[in-house]
């Protein structure tokens, strides 16, 4: 082979290598962008799940507070009735 053929083959190989390298870069960039998009979507889903859990927790706390208030009111009423009965018992002659 003469020098011109060698140079032509080397030039073609260099162009093929450069094109392949650019394709690899593009594919890697696309894969990285896809992974970043997936990560962003997962973070958003996780945020939504945390917000939903916090909402459920808040509702459960409110419900528990309402039950505690009702129980305290009933206990006050029962205590008041017991004190009234005790007072009546103390006033009656035996």
Description:
The mean pLDDT is 84. The protein has one helix spanning 3-91. With 94 residues, the protein is mainly α.
Summarize model confidence as the mean pLDDT.
84
Classify the helix fraction into a percent range.
over 70%
- How many DSSP E strands? 0
What integer value in Å does the Rg equal? 40 Å
- Percentage of β-strand residues: under 5%
Main β sheet profile: none
The number of distinct helices, counting runs of at least 4 residues, comes to 1
- Spans of 5+ residues with little confidence (pLDDT < 50)? none
Spatial separation of the terminal alpha carbons: 135 Å
Shape: rod-shaped
Broad structural category: mainly alpha
Summarize the helix and strand pattern as letters: H
Please sum up the structure shown.
With 94 residues, this protein is an all-alpha fold. Helix content is 95%, strand content 0%.
Keywords:
1 helix, rod-shaped, mainly alpha, 94 residues, 95% helix
């Amino acid at each position: 082979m003469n020098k011109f053929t060698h140079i032509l083959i080397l030039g073609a190989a260099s162009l093929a290598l450069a094109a392949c390298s650019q394709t690899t870069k593009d594919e890697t960039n696309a894969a990285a962008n896809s992974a970043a998009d997936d990560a962003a979507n997962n973070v958003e889903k996780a945020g939504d799940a945390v917000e939903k859990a916090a909402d459920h927790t808040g509702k459960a706390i409110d419900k528990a507070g309402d039950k505690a208030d009702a129980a305290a009111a009933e206990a006050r009423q029962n205590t008041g009735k017991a004190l009234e009965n005790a007072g009546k018992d103390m006033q009656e002659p035996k």
